[in-house]
Design brief:
about 35% helix; about 20% strand; 4-stranded antiparallel beta sheet; about 170 residues
């Protein structure tokens, strides 16, 4: 199913929920010109379908003291991949991990308090049976941080169309 069955109203709703996460559903429904029950039913459908994956606050990793971000590719023995994934999941500094194509096997985004801390995390992972080697790059700055809003906007259409009513 294309776009997980999202229509323009779904996109506009997601845009407002992302722009104003603390605003109530009643107010967002008013801004969209739909009943609160309609909005709730759509939100429940999108949550059930896995489109909406969370409602928590975004947290700045650097504000937690993890000011160094690195991207590491680990080459692994394929039969051990499931066990390696379980071990990676237990390392809090690994923000995300992906099975990838190309010269590496598992790509990880790592946060550390310093370059040395990132090295300790990598060394810890290299001790896992089946992990053969790593290649790491340190991020200097984020020119485009992780985002999904442009995809939401693609579904929702141009911003400002009856999304935000003065009042």
């Amino acid at each position: 199913m294309a776009r997980q069955g999202l229509d323009t109203l779904d996109g506009r709703m997601l845009r407002l929920l992302r722009e104003r996460p603390r605003e109530g559903l009643l107010e967002i429904a008013r801004q969209l010109g739909v009943a609160r029950g309609t909005l709730q039913a759509r939100l429940d459908r999108l949550t059930g379908a896995g489109v909406v994956t969370g409602y928590g606050p975004d947290v700045d990793v650097a504000a937690l003291g993890h000011v160094v971000e690195a991207f590491t590719t680990f080459e692994v023995d394929q039969p051990a991949r499931e066990d390696i994934t379980a071990r990676l999941r237990a390392v809090p500094q690994i923000l995300e991990a992906h099975i990838v194509t190309g010269p590496g096997d598992i790509w990880c985004r790592i946060a550390g308090t310093s370059n040395q801390h990132v090295q300790q995390v990598i060394d810890h992972v290299l001790e896992v049976p089946g992990v053969r080697r790593s290649t790491t790059v340190i991020a200097l700055s984020a020119v485009i941080p992780f985002r999904v809003q442009p995809l939401v906007d693609e579904v929702a259409g141009p911003a400002g169309q009856a999304d935000v009513r003065s009042g």
